[in-house]
């Protein structure tokens, strides 16, 4: 590709990798630093789009008077647009140009944030979250481009992992910020922070734009039609996974969501299978290496639900408030940062699966440490185990993304869309499926444990009678009526039994995740050792094909 813009013919090593991607001119050191800082801000802002929502969702529900089901639809509105938007945005960049893509991303981000600041409405919040999902997907791509401008040679590959890693900071960072923001000004303060970050991103991107990028006419009406079917199907599946754990899986209308999601997604995939120039190359996606890549990413993402659903849910069930969890999420954030830094320092494309083995071991150990929790467990007792899991979740993510990108680029630029589908859906649907399965498991096990405990709560048991007497004495200052005190003591006892059943269910979940992670660690570890012994490099062919494209000599 001989690319020329504004009268300047880019040197061979400065040429864009593909249409829709910016050129890589030789920047001075100060400009590289500026690209680095802007890229980090863009990645963090992308992560905070969902992080702030999840951290402030209880307060938002209270502000708008929403039911849990309505709050679930707000989550769905984000995931349904974020999950597969990267596929379409890839075509948009190639067809309409990079600068139009930048303007579209920032305009959607600004529109979503302004709607939240100006209007206080459930419908507006749904629209804003939908726009934020699209914008977050675009911001991640922008962050990758900016960070790649900051590096040279082989280090450009680290820009991919760095952008995705910094985006993951959004969840723990939001959990640290939101309690203070809410105390200072309620939800308007949260919305104001989002808007301020958006305006800062817009100003910096205008001040230091990306280098130009070539375009190519690639979009057709069939692309729009196929994507509409595919995106609609994925949206229904996201709705099924989110709402299922809220209204429970036997609710009849969930079946329509699942059936519609499968039908629409299947129709889109059938169209793609029969196309000569598909957006999604199903033959490549169906290759054993790509299936193993996607499955590995989904499994690890599912297992990290031990933190998002397990530990966080246990603390919420024990009545620990968001302010009391600030230090907890501070530890999680620090471990996440350490995991990203170490994954970049230890990044080795010739041994790309090693981080997965390490991550699975960390999750297994962390889950095992948590399975001894009790009703008196508090956040500080979970610092080490959750730091271990947060580190593990981050340590594997960047190398996994890099592996998929290398495999896709080695086959050609058009395979980036297929990679985006595999990686994005494995992470989004894997995370939602993990949360759904964990929640269902907790519900069933809590009921089972409560059913086992209740028959033993009889007044004929001297220990139970003594405990009830102690509860009645502790409640004596509230009433002089013995019958009322007895009734309140019984209610308190049943509540304690329910809490104990819940804690036992969480311990069961930690044990299950620990067992699954240990089994996955053994399997992946043995395969990794076998490849090391035989000198097999999973990406040897792909790296050889890419060497001239990604690492050209000046």
TrEMBL record:
Subcellular localization(s) per the UniProt record: Endomembrane system
GO CC, alphabetical: endomembrane system; plasma membrane
InterPro entries: MFS_trans_sf
GO MF entries: transmembrane transporter activity
Membrane disposition: Multi-pass membrane protein
Keywords associated with the record: Membrane, Transmembrane, Transmembrane helix, Transport
Descriptive protein name: MFS drug efflux transporter
Native species: Neisseria shayeganii 871
């Amino acid at each position: 590709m001989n690319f020329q813009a504004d009268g300047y013919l880019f040197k061979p090593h400065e040429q864009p990798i593909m249409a829709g991607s910016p050129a890589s001119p030789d920047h001075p050191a100060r400009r590289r630093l500026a690209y680095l800082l802007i890229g980090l801000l863009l990645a963090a802002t992308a992560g905070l789009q969902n992080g702030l929502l999840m951290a402030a969702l209880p307060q938002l529900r209270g502000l708008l008077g929403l039911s849990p089901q309505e709050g679930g639809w707000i989550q769905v509105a984000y995931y349904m647009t974020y999950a597969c938007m990267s596929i379409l945005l890839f075509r948009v960049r190639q067809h309409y140009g990079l600068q139009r893509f930048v303007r579209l991303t920032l305009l959607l981000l600004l529109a979503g944030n302004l709607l939240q600041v100006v209007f206080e409405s459930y419908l507006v919040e749904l629209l804003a979250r939908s726009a934020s999902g699209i914008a977050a997907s675009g911001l991640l791509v922008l962050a990758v481009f900016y960070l790649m401008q900051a590096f040279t040679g082989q280090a450009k590959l680290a820009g991919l992992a760095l952008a995705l890693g910094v985006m993951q900071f959004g969840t723990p960072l939001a959990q640290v910020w939101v309690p203070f923001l809410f105390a200072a000004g309620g939800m308007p303060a949260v919305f104001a922070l989002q808007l301020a970050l958006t305006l800062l991103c817009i100003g910096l991107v205008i001040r230091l734009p990306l280098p130009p990028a070539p375009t190519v006419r690639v979009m057709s009406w069939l692309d729009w039609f196929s994507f509409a079917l595919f995106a609609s199907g994925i949206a229904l599946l996201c709705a099924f996974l989110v709402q299922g754990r809220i209204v429970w899986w036997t609710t009849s209308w969930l079946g329509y969501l699942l059936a519609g999601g499968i039908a629409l997604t299947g129709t889109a995939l059938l169209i793609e299978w029969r196309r000569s120039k598909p957006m999604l190359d199903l033959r490549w996606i169906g290759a054993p290496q790509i299936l193993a890549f996607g499955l590995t990413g989904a499994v690890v993402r599912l297992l990290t639900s031990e933190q998002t659903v397990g530990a966080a849910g246990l603390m919420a069930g024990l009545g620990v408030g968001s302010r009391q969890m600030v230090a907890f999420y501070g530890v999680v954030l620090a471990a996440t940062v350490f995991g990203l830094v170490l994954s970049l320092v230890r990044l080795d494309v010739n041994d790309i699966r090693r981080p997965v083995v390490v991550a699975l071991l960390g999750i297994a150990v962390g889950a095992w440490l948590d399975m001894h929790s009790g009703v008196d467990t508090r956040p500080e007792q979970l610092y080490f185990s959750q730091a271990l899991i947060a580190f593990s979740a981050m340590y594997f993510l960047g190398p996994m993304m890099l592996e998929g990108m290398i495999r896709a680029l080695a086959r050609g630029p058009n395979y980036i869309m297929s990679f985006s589908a595999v990686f994005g859906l494995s992470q989004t649907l894997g995370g939602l499926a993990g949360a759904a399965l964990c929640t269902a498991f907790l519900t069933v096990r809590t009921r089972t444990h409560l059913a086992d405990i209740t028959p033993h709560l009889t007044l004929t048991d001297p220990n139970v009678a003594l405990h009830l007497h102690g509860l009645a004495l502790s409640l004596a200052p509230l009433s002089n009526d013995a019958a009322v005190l007895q009734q309140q003591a019984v209610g308190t006892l049943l509540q304690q039994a329910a809490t104990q059943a819940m804690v036992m269910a969480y311990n069961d979940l930690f044990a299950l995740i620990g067992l699954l992670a240990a089994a996955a660690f053994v399997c992946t570890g043995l395969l990794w050792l076998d490849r090391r012994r035989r000198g097999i490099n999973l990406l040897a062919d792909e790296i050889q094909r890419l060497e001239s494209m990604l690492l050209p000599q000046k």
